[in-house]
Amino acid sequence: MAAPAEHWPLRHVLVLPTTGESVRTVREMTELVLVEWGIDCRHPSVDPALLIVSELVTNSVRHAAALSPTVTVTYAASADALAFAVHDRHPYQPALYGSLAGGPGSGLATVVELTMGLGGTAVLRGDTDGRGKSIWITLPL
Question: For 120-130, how does the pLDDT look when each residue is reduced to its tens digit (9 = 90+)?
Answer without folding.
Answer: 999 999 999 99
